[in-house]
């Protein structure tokens, strides 16, 4: 391992960004409601449903035996239907509010974020990314959430719906083989989902304090840098998004 | 500040409202779950029927004729054929119809396998063969006096036995060793007085066949009550609802012909050619608009009445259960065990030990439950009650080992191999009684041999307990080549289980198959959640999760270890 200078690091364009910004006098950190009420509702209800689905699902898979099989079937199916409804609403919400832009992949700064989590965080380096109103997530986060939304999620709901609607295609040729494949995809995606959740939950502990990010996801407020224009706009138009200055 | 407070108030209200909406949505979606037991409601079990004397059959009895008032039936009948003659004087076509039936011919041409089957030809895993043992075996022929399997049954119309199917069984019973005839004078069988039939009462008591009519033969296949089938024995005369929902007096109170509903003295539902996955088609194979119309077909299947979506209601559970009907036969879940009525069934029969004598005399032993365990005439047995079925894919086709097929003795020989697999769209998973037997073959040609068991001659095994002579006589009777050497081999025989349907709440529960080591453990070609591991995905999946947790743990340790350092 190479020796990393602990303080005044200036190598690389991104690692010095926050430092650079803090010395700019026209940028202030303010507590801004970056997660709207719906976004938080989405997050926490989705989290609850995913946990219910994981436990009931692995109950069905035979890994766990917490509840009787038919109850697990009921719980799993109804939770899946609720999650599908939630995702439908959220897709609508994401596109009508323009929030979808936060999930667009951006290569800029991805490597710096990976480098930060790989060892910068251990060595005490500052986070290379600073949340802004225009971009709430860093490049790695965007990529992870995009993977969640376009690969893991769809693999689960597509195979899950196919499984639920088995009665409609049971007379198809090779329906038994297709059924096995559907179950295979669903199980594989479930393992991927659990891996995602483990990492995601761990990452929430990497904030200023262990519970900092979780608190943010509950209250919606996070201290981020605002340009004078942004601050003035919010003060004038959406004062409820700003916490009063201490 | 007041603005904010007002907003917060509004927010509170919104939060409450959204919670309420969510709750309502949840309850409305999960509402149908409460309709749990409704999913099992059976179309036949709902109405409270007044108890009727006669059982319900496929056809309604006319009840316009009281046979006791018929002059022709008021004669002093001396024999069965005399009664038949009287019957035929009105029922002019009955004998011709019976002559066309498997009950008469004991012959079944299986067009699909090209095999000639039926009792006349088949060698089974019980008493083996009818040939050379006729007068005993043909006590269950629907006629009188068939004493030679090598010839067709007697052609005279009055050789048909009307009474065995139509008379009240309290007045009529065929003698076990008189080729189908009853006795009208006292006589012993096996040292015990046998029922003397009252032909006049019998003739006047006729009705559509009741269960004990069919049961007079079908309960006792293989030489005793419940011996052969496992799901058909005398407990079905007066079954509780727990034993059989269809036949119980307080259930469907159905006679056999309510399901085996044919016409013209021919009944559907022969084991020799089954329909393992009934389709909504008519007799010509044309698709019917609804499954209910199968009721008009001459078939005996659950689907005929219950359709292929038998679990009622729009609940998720009903939908889930109905999703099983393309792969799992109704019987698989709804007959959790056979031989449940207190009559044991024979599960193992070892002919090789037959013929032991005590002081020069044959003897019999019983096991600690009182079931026969040894008989010098027949060998060793194992009888069992409340037996969990053996399960297999089955498309309705059996391929028999005939007397011309050499067998492979390196493993147990399956006398009636099951057709079907997971890839066969006419197959489903069916429950069976798997009979275990040891029986003789020609040691050189490796073909099944005929056993001459019954008869007054000294070659009959039950007379002189001499296997070499008994087998030689059997082979000679049928004109078969015989090397003169025999050996006993292990055989198996599949008996589909389809009677003794339990009430819905006693059906096989989900976990009994959806678990490791469950009832369907050996069933291949289908993914069963809870049973199947998918080894590849499990290894990769659990591996990935473990590695992730490990990575997280190492990361955490590094973070904690360097925390102090970072604070400086």
Short account of what is shown:
The complex is a heterodimer of chains A (246) and B (568). By secondary structure, chain A is mainly α.
Task: Explain how this protein is built.
- The complex is a heterodimer of chains A (246) and B (568).
- Chain A is mainly alpha-helical and 246 residues long.
- Chain A has one domain: Fumarate Reductase Cytochrome B subunit, CATH 1.20.950.20.
- Chain A contains nine helices and two strands, in the order H-E-H-H-H-H-H-H-H-E-H.
- A two-stranded antiparallel ribbon of chain A has the order 1-2.
- In chain A, helix 2 runs antiparallel to helix 3.
- The longest helix of chain A is centred in the last third of the chain and has 29 residues.
- Chain A is elongated and about 65 Å long.
- The N terminus of chain A is likely disordered.
- Chain B is an alpha+beta fold.
- Among the domains of chain B are: 159 residues, no CATH class; 27 residues.
- In chain B, 25% of the residues lie in helices and 12% in strands.
- Chain B starts with a helix and ends with a helix.
Number of strands of chain A: 2
In terms of quaternary structure, what is this? Answer: heterodimer
The portion of residues forming beta strands of chain A comes to: under 5%
Q: Assign a percent range to the helix content of chain B.
A: 10-25%
The whole-angstrom Rg of chain A is: 22 Å
Percent range of helical residues of chain A:
55-70%
The radius of gyration computed from the alpha-carbon positions of chain B, rounded to a whole number of angstroms, is: 31 Å
Which features characterize this protein?
heterodimer; A: 246 residues; mainly alpha; Fumarate Reductase Cytochrome B subunit; 9 helices; 5% strand; elongated; B: 568 residues; alpha+beta; 8-stranded mixed sheet; two-stranded antiparallel ribbon; 16 helices; 14 strands
List the helices and strands and how they pair.
The complex is a heterodimer of chains A (246) and B (568).
Chain A: H1 17-22, E1 28-33, H2 37-61, H3 69-96, H4 110-123, H5 139-164, H6 166-169, H7 175-203, H8 212-219, E2 221-226, H9 228-237
Antiparallel strand pairs in A: 1-2
Chain B: H1 2-30, H2 80-90, H3 94-99, H4 102-105, E1 108-110, E2 115-117, H5 134-137, H6 163-166, E3 188-189, E4 192-193, H7 199-204, H8 211-218, H9 256-259, H10 302-306, H11 316-322, H12 330-334, E5 345-350, E6 364-366, E7 372-375, E8 379-384, E9 390-394, E10 398-400, E11 413-414, E12 416-418, E13 428-442, H13 461-464, H14 467-477, E14 486-496, H15 535-561, H16 563-567
Parallel strand pairs in B: 5-13, 11-14
Antiparallel strand pairs in B: 1-2, 3-4, 5-8, 6-7, 7-8, 9-13, 10-12, 13-14
């Amino acid at each position: 391992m190479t020796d990393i200078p602990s303080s005044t690091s200036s190598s690389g364009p991104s690692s010095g960004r926050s430092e650079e910004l803090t010395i700019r006098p026209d940028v202030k950190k303010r507590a801004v409601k970056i997660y709207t009420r719906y976004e938080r509702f989405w997050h926490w209800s989705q989290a609850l449903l995913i946990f219910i689905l994981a436990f009931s699902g692995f109950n069905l898979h035979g890994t766990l035996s917490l509840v009787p099989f038919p109850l697990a079937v009921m719980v799993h199916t109804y939770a899946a239907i609720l999650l599908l409804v939630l995702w439908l609403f959220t897709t609508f919400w994401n596109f009508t509010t323009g929030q979808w832009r936060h999930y667009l992949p951006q290569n800029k700064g991805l490597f710096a974020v990976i480098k930060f989590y790989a060892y910068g965080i251990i060595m005490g380096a500052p986070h290379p990314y600073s949340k802004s109103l225009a971009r709430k997530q860093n490049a790695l986060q965007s990529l992870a959430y995009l993977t969640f939304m376009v690969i893991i999620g769809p693999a689960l709901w597509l195979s899950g719906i196919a499984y639920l609607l088995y009665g409609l295609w049971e007379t198809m040729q090779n329906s038994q083989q297709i059924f096995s494949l559907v179950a295979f995809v669903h199980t594989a995606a479930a393992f991927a989902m659990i891996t995602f959740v483990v990492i995601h939950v761990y990452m929430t502990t990497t904030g200023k304090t262990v519970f900092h990010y979780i608190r943010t996801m509950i209250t919606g407020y996070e201290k981020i840098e605002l340009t004078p224009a942004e601050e003035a706009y919010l003060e004038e138009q959406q004062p409820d998004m700003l916490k009063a200055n201490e | 500040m007041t603005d904010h407070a007002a907003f917060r108030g509004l927010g509170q209200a919104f939060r409450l409202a959204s919670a309420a909406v969510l709750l309502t949505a949840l309850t409305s979606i999960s509402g149908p779950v409460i309709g749990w037991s409704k999913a099992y409601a059976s179309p036949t079990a709902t109405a409270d029927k007044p108890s009727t004397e006669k059982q319900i059959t496929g056809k309604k009895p006319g009840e316009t004729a009281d046979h006791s008032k018929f002059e022709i039936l008021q004669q002093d009948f001396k024999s069965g054929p005399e009664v038949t003659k009287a019957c035929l004087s009105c029922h002019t076509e009955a004998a011709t119809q019976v002559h066309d039936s498997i009950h008469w011919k004991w012959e079944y041409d299986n067009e699909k396998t090209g095999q000639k089957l039926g009792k006349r030809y088949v060698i089974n895993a019980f008493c083996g063969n009818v040939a050379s043992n006729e007068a005993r075996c043909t006590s269950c022929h629907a006629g009188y006096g068939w004493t030679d399997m090598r010839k067709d049954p007697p052609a005279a119309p009055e050789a048909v036995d009307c009474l065995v199917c139509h008379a009240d069984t309290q007045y009529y019973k065929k003698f076990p060793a008189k080729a189908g005839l009853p006795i009208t004078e006292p006589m012993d069988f096996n040292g015990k007085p046998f029922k003397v039939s009252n032909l006049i009462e019998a003739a006047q008591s006729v009705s559509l066949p009741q269960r004990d009519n069919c049961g007079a033969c079908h309960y006792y296949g293989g030489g005793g009550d419940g011996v052969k089938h496992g799901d058909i024995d005398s407990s079905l005369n007066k079954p509780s609802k727990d034993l059989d929902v269809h036949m119980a007096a307080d259930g469907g109170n159905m006679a056999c012909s309510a399901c085996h509903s044919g016409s013209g003295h021919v009944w559907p539902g022969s084991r020799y050619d089954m329909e393992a996955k009934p389709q909504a088609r008519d007799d010509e194979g044309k698709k019917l608009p609804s499954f209910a119309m199968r009721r008009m077909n001459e078939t005996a299947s659950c689907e005929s009445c219950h359709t292929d979506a038998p679990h009622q209601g729009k609940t998720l559970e009903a939908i889930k259960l109905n999703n099983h009907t393309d792969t799992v036969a109704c019987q698989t879940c709804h007959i959790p065990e056979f031989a449940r009525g207190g009559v044991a069934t024979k599960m193992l029969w070892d002919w090789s030990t037959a013929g032991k004598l005590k002081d020069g005399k044959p003897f019999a032993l019983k096991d600690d439950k009182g079931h026969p365990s040894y008989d010098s005439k027949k060998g060793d047995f194992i009888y069992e009650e409340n037996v969990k079925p053996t399960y297999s894919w089955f498309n309705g086709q059996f391929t028999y080992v005939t007397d011309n097929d050499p067998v492979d003795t390196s493993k147990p020989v399956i006398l009636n191999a099951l057709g079907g697999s997971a890839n066969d769209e006419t197959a489903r998973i069916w429950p069976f009684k798997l009979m275990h037997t040891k029986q003789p073959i020609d040691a050189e040609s490796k073909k099944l041999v005929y056993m001459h068991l019954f008869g007054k001659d000294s070659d009959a095994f039950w007379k002189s307990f001499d296997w070499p002579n008994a087998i030689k006589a059997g082979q000679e009777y049928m004109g078969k080549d015989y090397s003169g050497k025999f050996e006993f081999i292990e055989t198996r025989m599949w008996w589909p289980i389809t009677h003794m349907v339990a009430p819905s709440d006693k059906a096989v529960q989900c976990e009994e198959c959806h678990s490791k080591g469950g009832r369907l453990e050996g069933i291949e070609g289908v993914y069963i959640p809870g049973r199947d591991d998918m080894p590849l995905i499990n290894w990769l999946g659990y591996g990935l999760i473990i590695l992730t947790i490990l990575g997280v743990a190492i990361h955490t340790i590094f973070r904690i270890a360097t925390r102090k350092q970072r604070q400086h």
